[in-house]
Design goal:
With about 230 residues, the protein is an all-alpha fold. The protein is built from six helices and two strands; from the N terminus they run H-E-E-H-H-H-H-H.
Length: about 230
């Protein structure tokens, strides 16, 4: 009689997944004997669901990575980058909000422009977050955590007049630019050239360009007659 190689009854269930994750023999994947003195490995296609685990790295800490940068330099850069990251995530969300809520004679142009800027900000979010991870830190990711950290004022839940929405975006840009200039200078002083480069070449250059495009829409110029 062939040996039993699997047991449906012993696989982790939706209810017992977390407990089963720590007891692999009862989950059907531990080594078992085949009756001839050979170890066999049971297999199962059942995902181990509803798992929970310990927090393995606290926010605000850095792991030791061999990058030629001191612990303090990497910790400082992560702190500054997480601030820029939180504000950039809020700027991205503001761009999408105003892309949706746009109205008036220039609706189509601004609707498209704000979405383009949102896409570029989203690329920055990923670059900044991955710089934090590269340095051994923890990138701020959950939007509720972002909301606790950001310095950009919350807008009303409803729609504002178009020039007010554009001004709000410009002010968010300036908040980030001021912080990024300072962070770029200080991280360079501490030897973190990569973070300095990201802040200058990407965050600042992109932000300045987008601010220019927004500001030109706030020039009160006649559309038809000079
Ligand atoms: Fe859209």
């Amino acid at each position: 009689m062939p040996p039993r190689t699997s047991s449906t009854a012993s696989r982790p269930s939706a209810r017992s997944g977390a407990r089963s994750a720590r007891t692999p023999r009862t989950a059907g994947t531990g080594p078992v004997g085949d009756g001839n003195g050979h170890a066999r490995r049971q297999v199962s296609s059942q995902p181990w669901l509803h798992q929970r685990g310990a927090e393995v790295q606290e926010f605000g800490t850095v792991r030791q990575f061999p990058l030629g940068l001191s612990h303090d330099a990497r910790l400082y850069s992560c702190e500054r980058l997480d601030q820029v990251l939180a504000d950039t995530q809020i700027l991205y969300a503001l761009y999408k909000k105003h892309h949706w809520l746009m109205r008036g004679a220039t609706f189509y142009q601004l609707h498209l422009l704000l979405d383009k800027h949102a896409g570029e900000q989203l690329e920055l979010v990923d670059m900044i977050a991955e710089r934090v991870q590269t340095l051994g830190g923890v990138a701020v990711g959950d939007p509720r955590h972002v909301a606790e950290i950001t310095t950009i004022p919350r807008p009303p839940n409803g729609a504002e007049e178009v020039p007010a929405m554009l001004s709000r975006l410009l002010e968010a840009h300036e908040t980030i630019l001021i912080d990024a200039h300072d962070a770029a200078a200080r991280t360079a002083e501490m030897g973190d050239d990569g973070t300095n480069d990201l802040l200058v070449s990407d965050v600042i250059r992109t932000g300045e360009m987008q601010a220019w495009f927004l500001a030109e829409h706030l020039v009160d110029t006649p559309l038809v007659r000079a």
